[in-house]
Write a structure and sequence with these properties.
By secondary structure, the protein is an alpha+beta fold. Among the domains are: about 110 residues, 2-Layer Sandwich (Uridine Diphospho-n-acetylenolpyruvylglucosamine Reductase, domain 3); about 120 residues, Alpha-Beta Plaits; about 90 residues, 2-Layer Sandwich (GMP Synthetase, Chain A, domain 3). The chain has 19 helices and 22 strands. The strands form six sheets. A seven-stranded antiparallel beta sheet has the order 19-16-18-17-21-22-20, sandwiched between helices. Strands 9-10-14-12-13 form a five-stranded antiparallel beta sheet. It has a four-stranded mixed beta sheet with strand order 1-2-8-3, covered by helices on one side. A hairpin with a 2-residue loop joins strand 12 and strand 13. Helix 11 packs across helix 14. The protein starts with 19 loop residues before the first helix and ends in a 23-residue tail after the last helix.
């Protein structure tokens, strides 16, 4: 069973290594385990539903609680403290697109609003009940939005799409597969692998996120360098809107005006409910290896990675950690004896303080893997990299979907952890990375607290890279204090991203947390176009209000 107030299955855990307490205490101070709210008490606080009966609708308090929040840090604070300001009035579980149409019609008749729900893994407020309240926005002074409970507003229905989970069509000739949009990552891959194929889309939330969610948020898998982001894999499908059904044929290419598939990608439930998606699949690779290389410093690693990707070497993964992240990874890896031997080996090769870890993924035939590995390792060696083999790569691949479980263990030890990300051009990466980390450190200082901040480049392109930053800090004395610390750091980092001309999100999407910063990226004409699109497909504002853009419009200030 899924945890109601944390990450993942209740049967899976990721205990902190024995040395973790000393490591974390030395960087941010000792943690104080919190007193979390009990499930029974929170269920008992769920108010009575405001919806009329419907055969597809469940209104029991437990189901409504489990669909009230996602996986962002504010969501965790709300769930763990039991202070949840709003709940959906009911949860529906459609099995067909026809039932989705019926539920949209029911919502319009009942004056209700609909929130599409895939796996509930959103970290930026995509599925939260309430509307966004955004202050006046000016350059350098962006007020982050916050969610207001609906109060006497319209009732809310959460549409759980996980029963739209069938493989509908598999086309070996054209290498296309069509699934119900609610299918989860492991089930999708199981269908394809049974036929000798893969989608190759592996976000960290892979075990619990859905195909429709990936499309709606423009998701990026960890091996996107080889397989592509979801916009490269999404070939077409169907979306139910209040104005009718939008069918998108899987054309390999088209010059017939703007591509409507691009409107659906990243639409975050504002334009319609994605009910099925056709994706481009690939034959299972003959071989897949993950290797590790250590560089003496981040600059050397950065140059090597840029050189490799701009040479168009066919890797599936390049992931470069800063020195702080590398130190953290090694310190919390356990296996102290093996890590000690590694440190000695690297020291003899002239790599000690400031070392940075690069993970490389090679996917393809035996010959392709050998040739690509040889060329890539020749480049890393040119820039001072020391290849240490596949052991680290195997450990990363085996544990990559288990890592989020550390959030549970850290919280229980008295620490909160959050992530944020952006993307920018190669020439801007060092400046942007430093600006984000500095902003986070400066924002927590007035609380007389510290944050442990570390970063890696998670996805790379010929023109630039994504920057993925993790920040860990102590829980406050109560939920409000913890949330205040998070808000200060998140706002400061987001302002730094906007000020240094990065995208406000490379892979997490917009939701409510990033909506206040969207205009800086899209501009006034772009924002007006987004508002017009939402009104065209959903004139009554039934679908996922407050997400992506404000339902009521936003007073935008000066543009950068």
């Amino acid at each position: 069973m899924r945890r109601w107030n944390g990450w993942g299955e209740t049967t899976t855990s990721y205990p902190l290594p024995e040395n973790a307490g000393e490591f974390l205490s030395g960087r941010v101070g000792p943690g104080t385990p919190p007193q979390d709210a009990a499930l029974a008490d929170v269920v008992g606080a769920v108010p009575k539903s405001r919806l009329p009966d419907h055969p597809l609708l469940k209104i029991d308090p437990a189901a409504r609680l489990r669909h009230a929040r996602g996986q962002s840090l504010p969501d965790w604070v709300a769930l763990r403290t039991g202070r949840i300001p709003a709940f959906p009035d009911g949860v529906a579980y459609p099995v067909t697109a026809v039932e989705v149409e019926e539920l949209i019609a029911f919502s319009q008749k009942a004056g209700a609003q609909l929130i599409p729900y895939g796996g509930g893994t959103s970290v930026v407020g995509h599925i939260n009940v309430g509307h966004i309240n955004v202050g006046h926005t000016t350059v350098g002074h962006i007020n982050a939005g916050h969610i207001n409970p609906p109060g006497d507003g319209p009732p809310v229905i959460t549409l759980n799409l996980q029963r739209l989970n069938r493989l509908l069509r598999f086309d070996r000739t054209n290498q296309l597969a069509t699934f119900g949009a609610g299918i989860m990552g492991p089930d999708l891959e199981a269908h394809l692998r049974a036929r000798g194929y893969t989608l190759g889309h592996f976000p960290q939330s892979f075990e619990f996120s859905t195909l429709g969610g990936w499309v709606a948020t423009r998701s990026s898998g960890q091996q996107s360098l080889g397989y592509g982001r979801i916009e490269d894999l999404f070939a077409g499908g169907s979306m139910v809107t209040p104005q009718g059904r939008l069918d998108m044929p899987p054309f390999p290419a088209s010059a017939a005006g703007p591509d409507l598939r691009q409107l659906v990608l990243g639409s975050e439930g504002r334009l319609g409910i994605i009910t099925e998606a056709t994706v481009r699949v690939s034959p299972l690779p003959e071989r897949e290896d993950f290797h590790a290389v250590f560089f003496p410093d981040f600059e050397s690693g950065l140059t090597a990675v840029r050189t490799i990707v701009q040479a168009r070497l066919p890797l599936s993964l390049l992931r470069l950690s800063t020195a702080v992240e590398t130190t953290t990874t090694l310190a919390l890896a356990g296996h102290e004896r093996l890590i000690g031997l590694l440190e000695q080996l690297l020291y003899l090769r002239g790599i000690s303080e400031g070392k940075c870890l690069l993970m490389l993924g090679f996917t393809g035939t035996n010959d392709q893997v050998k040739q690509t590995r040889s060329a890539a390792l020749e480049t890393t060696s040119t820039y001072g990299g020391v290849h240490v083999g596949r052991q680290f790569g195997r450990q990363w691949a085996n544990g990559r979907f288990r890592t989020p479980y550390l959030r549970n263990s850290l919280w229980e030890a008295g620490y909160a952890v959050d992530t944020l990300e952006t993307a920018t051009t190669w020439s801007n990466v060092p400046l942007m990375l430093n600006a984000i980390e500095t902003a986070i450190h400066n924002a927590i200082a007035p609380f007389d607290e510290k944050a442990h901040v570390f970063t890696h480049l998670s996805h790379v392109y010929r023109q630039g890279a994504s920057i993925y930053t993790t920040y860990l800090f102590r829980l406050g004395a109560d939920g409000e204090e913890t949330l205040a610390r998070w808000q200060a750091m998140k706002t400061a980092a987001s302002e730094a991203i906007v000020a240094h001309r990065g995208t406000i999100s490379h892979q997490h999407g917009v939701g409510t947390d990033h909506a206040p910063y969207l205009a800086a990226e899209k501009g006034e004409p772009g924002m007006a176009a987004l508002h017009a699109l939402c009104h065209q497909f959903d004139p009554e504002g039934v679908l996922n209000p407050g997400k992506l853009i404000s339902s009521l419009g936003i007073q935008w200030g000066d543009k950068p």
